[in-house]
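testing teh design pipeline on a random one, pls ignore if ur not involved
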């Protein structure tokens, strides 16, 4: 059952053209995003070790994101693309994190829901990449990632529903999803996931 909300605003069609023109730079950013996604799930384990009902799922999510990083890295090696020495600031993520509320429960809920919103955007964008790529292993890889990101969009909502009412979860999810649409439209087009 799909719980995630689709993005309120679709990605600009020019975004995928920007990525295709500089795919190696996109791969560097994609690798960084997978590392950060794994770290995000683990940070929730570290910040909320008392939320035992979701710890295994958070750990599994972190491991899956790290597997995606490994897979992207293998593609980079095959294309002779190096990892970046530093991970640049991601304005998309920075703007989303600014939406986090204060208060232990509010912040916990917002973190889980932002996880869903980010994964849903990733799924939308990986689908665009998959559709733009020629037939081959790279196309198949992005098709798999598209499905995985969509699944993660549901996972974070399922976790939120363990602790919060459906009404509260989906009301806040809609608010964050709307803000995400405004953020994505405000950013310039770069060969990056966000």
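output:
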């Amino acid at each position: 059952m799909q719980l995630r909300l689709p993005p309120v605003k679709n990605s600009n069609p020019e975004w995928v053209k920007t990525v295709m023109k500089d795919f190696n730079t996109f791969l560097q950013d994609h690798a960084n995003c997978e590392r950060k996604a794994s770290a995000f799930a683990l940070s929730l384990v570290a910040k909320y070790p008392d939320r035992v009902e979701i710890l295994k799922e958070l750990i599994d999510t972190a491991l899956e994101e790290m597997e995606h990083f490994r897979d992207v890295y293998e593609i980079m090696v095959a294309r002779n693309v190096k990892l970046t020495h530093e991970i640049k600031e991601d304005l998309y993520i920075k703007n989303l994190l600014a939406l986090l509320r204060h208060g232990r429960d509010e912040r916990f809920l917002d973190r889980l829901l932002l996880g869903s919103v980010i994964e849903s955007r990733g799924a939308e964008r990986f689908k665009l990449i998959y559709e733009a790529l020629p037939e081959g292993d790279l196309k198949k890889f992005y098709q798999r990632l598209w499905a995985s990101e969509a699944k993660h969009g549901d996972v974070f909502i399922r976790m939120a529903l363990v602790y919060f009412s459906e009404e509260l979860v989906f009301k806040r999810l809609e608010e964050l999803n709307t803000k995400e649409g405004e953020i994505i439209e405000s950013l310039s087009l770069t060969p990056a996931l966000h």
